[in-house]
Write a structure and sequence with these properties.
The protein is mostly helical and 193 residues long. The protein is built from six helices and six strands, in the order αββαααββαββα. Strands 1-2 form a two-stranded antiparallel ribbon. The chain has a two-stranded antiparallel sheet with strand order 3-4. Strands 5-6 form a two-stranded antiparallel sheet. A hairpin with a 2-residue loop joins strand 3 and strand 4.
Length: 193
């Protein structure tokens, strides 16, 4: 089985945790999945925070290099605050400021439209600021709500993905049983032979 390391892992269980997964292998050789502004667009669409691009839409999502840097800064601030919630580091005011800055941005509001005499939902195309606002708000909800107790980091030593443990006994150890869990079990099996 070949694994595309640059594919976005959507195993976090929350948009904020999935966003943190855009940087993998933090403890070894960091794997940046948001390499270009187009990667940020693709993540936004796959995360369901932006509709797939419509070339005819005048408001299509089109981030630039500054948006990419802002997204990475938000990601890292959320990561450090999540590590703080897990008791590994102290929370820093600068990280709180970054998250609050993005959470204060407006997000698109759905509306009604009439097409051919029938009512339809009109969802405006979000901007990158709106996508980052949604991620920041989810991060605030996650880090201050009851789900904070269920945040786990994958136990595979080469993986640093975070996920929400919703298993019955809250004993989930790996981000994915198919990848990290399988590798761990193979290492254990080889060590016992």
């Amino acid at each position: 089985m070949t694994v595309d390391l640059l594919a976005f892992p959507f195993i976090g269980g929350r948009p904020a945790l999935n966003f943190l997964g855009t940087l993998g292998k933090r403890n070894t050789t960091p794997l940046e999945r948001l390499r270009t502004p187009q990667d940020l667009t693709r993540w936004s669409q796959l995360a369901g925070l932006a509709a797939p691009a419509d070339p005819a839409a005048p408001r299509a999502l089109s981030p630039g290099p500054a948006d990419l840097e802002a997204a990475r800064a938000l990601r890292e601030a959320l990561y450090r605050l999540t590590m703080s919630a897990l008791g590994r580091v102290s929370a820093q005011p600068a990280d709180v400021e970054i998250v609050n800055h993005w959470a204060a941005h407006p997000t698109p509001v759905p509306g009604l439209a009439i097409h051919s005499g029938a009512l339809h939902r009109d969802d405006p195309t979000p901007t990158i600021s709106a996508v980052l606002a949604a991620v920041a708000r989810d991060g605030i909800d996650l880090l201050t709500g009851p789900d904070v107790e269920s945040i786990r980091e994958c136990e595979d030593s080469t993986c640093t993905l975070l996920f929400l443990d919703t298993s019955r006994g809250h004993r989930r150890r790996w981000c994915s049983m198919n990848t990290c869990g399988a590798r761990s079990k193979m290492r254990t099996l080889r060590a016992s032979n």
